[in-house]
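so the lab meeting is tmrw and i was supposed to have these ready like two days ago... anyway. pasting both below. for each one the top line is the aa sequence and the line under it is the structure tokens. i havent really looked at them closely yet so no promises
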Amino acid sequence: MSQVSMQQVKELRERTQAGLNDCRSALMEADGDMDKAIEIILKKGLAKSAKRAGAIASEGVVVAKLAADAKSGVLVEVNIQTDFAARNEEFVGFAAQVAEVALATPSGAELGAQPFPGGGTVEERRAALVGKLGENITVRRWQRIEASGAGLVQAYVHMGGKIGALLAVAAPQPERAEVQSFAEDVVMHVAAMGPLRLSAAESTEEEKAKQAEIFAAQVEEEGKVPEARRAQVVADKVAKWVKEFSLLEQPSVTDGTKTVQQLCEAVSAAVGGEVKILGFARFERGEGISKPVGDDFAAEVARMAGA
């Protein structure tokens, strides 16, 4: 058996997620042949899928896909561990095909169990790609938006898949240029402003109570407001927060002189019938994922040397 370099060990570890000792042993057994070493590790079960599944995948892409008739659309977030791998053609192609599958899948169905183009299921193809690319991949979430009756769904993807948005609009003449332009402007607004709800009326008491707790803690910590006035100050902050994160109440990013609700009213007058936003969806890649900072490769080597 030949000696191997630490660079070879590092490369094998990155490609298989196996431990340092396992990688070194496999390379020595394979006389430094990287492909043979990978095969040895896979056969011995050292590159465990469970270990990859536990790796944090916060990079990746958000994909939007519309039906041919523009009556429905889906957003899909597919994650991978590194930004470099997120640009891999096979990963990008996989994410696009997952969106195709989602478009044909009823809401609430298990996406991973759906047939994948070319054979197998979404989950089976995901697992195969994990093994090929050496990084954990997750089909994290997906959502369908529909416009029943007269209306349309519009999509927008920003920054190459960092943010994706869908908007469903009801309109008497959805093919009209005014309606199309309105939908394009508002879906871009959704991507940019990140509203939490359609209107202030949709804010629940539980949601407002939770936000009130946050504001109350902030006001108390600042110590600038007399205790007798704190309840009113908190109530005012909650009311402002509800308005700021309600789509129809937000000032339009394309026309700051009007709210989104006022844009609805303007386009309704232009086409001679009510134009109404039915719903929206917005995904931002990696939002809500906490990526811990652990030991790097050098630290692990130093720890082993000390042992």
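ok protien two:
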Amino acid sequence: MKLLFVSPGWPKGRLWGELGFKFPSLSLAALAAVTPSHWQLGLVDENIEAIDFAVDADLVAITAMTPQAPRAYRIAAGFRERGIPVVMGGFHASNLPDEALEHADAVVVGEGELVWPRLLADFEKGSLQPRYRASELLGMQEVPPARRELYAGKKYLFTNTIQTTRGCPFDCEFCSVTAFYGRKYRKRPVEQVLQELEILRKKNSFVFFVDDNLVGDRRYALELFDGMRGKGFKWLSHAPIDLARDPELLRAAGEAGCVGLFVGFESLNEEALVAMGKVTNRAVSYLEDARAFRENGIGILGSFVLGNDGDTPEVFDEILRFCEEARLEAAIFPILTPFPGTAVRARLEAEGRIISNRWEDYDMGHVTFRPLGMTAEELQEGHNRLNRSFYSFSSMYRRIFKAHRSVQVFAPMNFGFRSAVKKTEKALRSQSDQK
């Protein structure tokens, strides 16, 4: 039996579709790890290669986030027209399984590892069910190492991605992680993680932990960092801003080889932080927090959500000034997006403020709701201007050209984002000219 995994491309003319550095989908390699050995596996990632719809496959499995969903549906149609059944999963299909079932033969809701072998067995017996959902959360000690041989021959920047935990103890209004993984914070045994890291180290010393909150359990994180210390790793991951207020844990991360962390600042407005459920953030200490990261050799990829109810047109210049004063190595500025399954979507729907369900525009770069403190047009223009200003040469020089070990990661990242921003703006101008 032949199984083809498919990762749909991001829409061109959008920031994430224009970024030059590409990473593989770890979730597909995780499913490959629980696929019975008699299945022949293949992978096509449309972000780096074209799809051959005439490929020899008995079953196609597609994963997609919300802005990729329309393309995923078109891909599914292309295979089904040729008589090849399609299974869909991922964040979007999990939150809108009825919609996904209009385009697929079966849908996996939520984490797939527990139900995947049963789905394949049903398929082989000719009794594929329309919907599969595990009755319980996966025990993290049961997670096998991802089958990264699936990436062989692909033009990825690097393939050393790994997940050690799932779930998040917090419940931010705009976040889709809790809806998918739950609030229970689950951890793989540290020894298993260290063994997998040793395998990865044979290929490359750079590692990206895809965990949404790597330090959600302090004792676990300290044990992991202690096991990594002295191994020569250079790694990145995600962590909350209050890590800066734990000197021991922050120092341990730095000594274990951390060179950068994605940190959700989200807003400079304390009331907005409270409203979105960002309980660990204190805007008054942001400058001091950023300094603590830098003193431990850790650069920051900051995130600031635009369009919160307390935001006015002044927010864009305020954020730019803060980012440059804090000397953030990099940043993204997502527009508040009411993804299916999130609390913010439920609230905005109840308030009658969602103005678009065009899923391509749910890329965090387009306004899909009616903001309160400004017009939708002001929010869109401010977002575009903030990206352009932050990734200007003058801003990049002020923020990243300094003696700091994170420069090896963040200098290329800045130039990559700058190029993607320019391509995105060019696409927007072209679309505007055609109207």
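from a quick look at the 2nd one: The chain is about 40% helix and 15% strand. Residues 306 and 335 are 5 Å apart (CA to CA). will dig more after coffe
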